[in-house]
Design a protein that fits this description.
Helix 7 links the parallel strand 7 and strand 8. Helix 2 packs parallel to helix 3. This protein is 40% helix and 16% strand. It is of the alpha/beta class and 268 residues long. The protein has nine helices and eight strands. The chain starts with 11 loop residues before the first strand and ends in an 8-residue tail after the last helix. The chain has a single domain, classed as Metal-dependent hydrolases (TIM Barrel, Alpha-Beta Barrel), CATH 3.20.20. The chain binds zinc ion (ZN). Zinc ion binds next to loops.
């Protein structure tokens, strides 16, 4: 695509999606085309198990603009153990793996035992710091425990993905040096506190994401989410912050590239 064809369009980055999931079967190519048409030049494809992390890295190796990560989602933490850790570590050590995660704590659904989630999250934090890779953190109804564990690993780099909390809760993560990524949830009318956080987040720490196929932003709410819809979230956050969408797209894409160590360009 030429620069002219991109004129007037956003150039943005979906900092978190799971496009390897079955929801995109039979629609993968068109999904990528729709993302391109909305100016989504890059995507971070986030693994949630050893298996899907392999798939994420494989997809990224075959599609320009996609970048894979490796980690064990807190919902999957029951699989935490030596065999899983060995597999994940080998994946994270690959040159093309851009982050550790997603990992974290989910006390809302609590699909895996708390002890397993805590052990897994600690392991991911330690690995991220050891390898100087960013960690992608999932935290739901677990703010106190999440920030406590993050503080056990000073110097760790990373992002609070799908940040749904308010401005006060955001502060300690910023102090810990983390980036904050806003998802479609920020566009929901009931998300007042989260919208305040989106206005207050410093320019150099702000990311946007879809978390596709989950959490489609307004006006797609309730449908399958996809990376193209990242533009809707970006425009919403730009309006909240009183800035031009194109400028915010550039800022957030640059932040994503800095965090994950990527070169920006057409199909970054
Ligand atoms: Zn996710």
């Amino acid at each position: 695509m030429t620069a002219d064809a991109n004129a007037g369009k956003l150039a943005l980055f979906d900092s978190h999606c799971h496009v390897f999931r079955e929801e995109f079967e039979g629609d993968f190519g068109p999904m990528l085309d729709r993302a391109s048409a909305e100016g989504v030049l890059g995507m971070i494809v986030v693994g949630t198990t050893a298996e899907t992390s392999e798939v994420a890295l494989d997809l990224a190796s075959r599609h320009p603009g996609l970048h894979g990560t490796a980690g064990l989602h807190p919902h999957e933490a029951a699989a935490f153990g030596d065999a899983t850790c060995a597999r994940l570590r080998a994946l994270v050590e690959r040159d093309d793996c851009v982050a550790v995660g997603e990992s974290g704590l989910d006390w809302f659904k609590e699909w895996a035992p708390r002890e397993a989630q805590l052990a897994s999250f600690r392991w991911h934090l330690a690995l991220a710091r050891e390898l100087d890779q960013p960690i992608i953190i999932h935290s739901r109804d677990a703010h106190d425990d999440t920030i406590e564990l993050v503080r056990e690993f000073p110097g760790v780099r990373g992002v609070m993905h799908c940040f749904v909390m308010g401005e006060e809760e955001m502060k300690p993560y910023l102090e810990a040096g983390l980036y904050i990524s806003f998802s479609g949830i920020v566009t929901f009318p009931g998300s007042r506190a989260n919208q305040a956080a989106a206005r207050a987040c410093p320019d150099d720490r702000l990311l946007v994401e879809t978390d596709a196929p989950f959490l489609a932003p307004v006006p797609h709410r309730g449908k399958r989410n996809e990376p193209a819809f990242c533009a809707d979230t970006l425009r919403f956050v730009a309006r909240e912050r009183g800035v031009e969408p194109a400028a915010l797209a550039q800022t957030t894409a640059a932040n994503t590239a800095r965090l994950f160590g990527l070169q920006l360009g057409a199909r970054a």
